[in-house]
Design brief:
293 residues, alpha/beta, RNA-binding
RNA sequence: GCUGGGGUAGUGAAGCGGUCAAACACUGCAGACUGUAAAUCUGCCGGCUUAUGCCUUCGGGGGUUCGAAUCCCUCCCCCAGCA
């Protein structure tokens, strides 16, 4: 059967939010003795559970999950750190003869791992603070004078600041997928995603994000939750501020989550190595076929 | 039934005689994005295979005017107050 050389080292499952990635990864993990690495920039935060649809205690008891609850809300967590973490996790998992399954909707995190991004200089937070006080125009001026090239994101303050921090250098990346990586994407039709986003929004509120938000605010403060909580929490904060009622919040969340799904689609769309499937079932069949060869 | 307010793009909302296809916001669509990425930013968004171009618009109809979304009459519909 499979020789060790050909044995896939990593299964990667991507797709927009609420497309069924988690369920699929769980299924594959159970069937092939795997462990899951969540590539999600929000579930790395402790306590940010309900609003991010973080894998449940039950699921985590059945299959080992990596990448969850790594830091406290409000703390800095970066793509660089995720990449390091994920790579270590993968070699740990593989060294024990298990299958690594990288799953998530944070495209940057996924790409940083599979294309082995060569990240550039870290930010000097003090300098960054100063840069943040400048206007877009002033930042562009600095870049021009230094001779760095201004990208298409020339109106984007964050990108301009980053360009200055990295002295305009581009980051290295692999131009193709490493051997042994199975990369699949789940991309249901828009109508289906919207439907699932809607259902999940109802579910998340029924599960009590609002009271979770209250608890988190008490523990970490409003700022921390607003900054690192994610879409659902920002909206819950609006309820707590008395700006909207819960029914409005749910609708708002559905809309915002769909917009997020669209951004994810845009990111993943340009990755030509992804094998796309319109539902988890088909993706599952493909992965199984690959793993069984 | 009377009085007052209102009917403008998918929605909200400016405009209140000429420079109005119509500010602005939201939605929607497309895109960018290597150390904040569930973030941040860009373009388009009445129609015309897309343009410093043409066409059609401002509840319906009629009128005043060189010229109306803007003034007048009338009809229809909303909302508030009074009956």
């Amino acid at each position: 059967m499979a020789t060790t050389a050909q044995k896939p080292k990593l299964v990667v499952i991507v797709g927009p939010t609420a497309s069924g990635k988690s369920a699929l990864s769980l299924k594959i993990a159970k069937e092939f003795d795997g462990e899951i690495i969540c590539a999600d920039s929000r579930t790395v935060y402790k306590g940010i559970d309900i609003g991010t649809a973080k894998p449940t205690k039950q699921d985590r008891a059945k299959v080992k999950h990596w990448g969850l609850d790594l830091v406290e809300p409000g703390q800095r967590f970066t793509a660089y750190r995720f990449k390091k973490y994920a790579q270590a996790a993968i070699s740990d998992i593989n060294s024990r003869g298990k299958l690594s399954i990288l799953v998530g909707g944070t495209g940057l995190y996924i790409d940083s791992v599979i294309f082995d991004f060569g990240f550039r200089d870290d930010a000097n937070l003090l300098k960054r603070q100063k840069l943040e006080s400048l206007s877009v125009l002033e930042l562009q001026e600095i870049i021009k004078k230094a001779g760095y090239k201004i990208s298409e994101n020339s109106q984007n303050k964050r990108h301009l600041i980053r360009a200055i921090e990295t002295k305009g250098r581009a980051g290295a990346r692999k131009s193709s997928l490493p051997k042994g990586v199975i990369l699949v994407g789940i991309l249901p039709p828009d109508g289906v995603i919207k439907e699932q986003v809607g259902q999940r929004a109802e579910q998340i509120f029924a599960n009590g994000v609002l009271s979770e938000t209250k608890k988190l605010v008490r523990k970490y403060g409003k700022e921390a939750i607003a900054e690192t909580g994610g879409i659902a929490y920002k909206i819950c904060l609006e309820i707590l501020a008395g700006k909207i009622i819960e029914a409005e919040a749910i609708e708002k969340f559905k809309k915002a989550d769909w917009q997020y799904a669209r951004r994810q689609k845009t990111w993943f769309r340009r990755n030509k190595f992804i094998h796309w499937f319109s539902d988890a079932e088909q993706a599952s069949n493909y992965i199984k076929a690959q793993l069984n060869t």
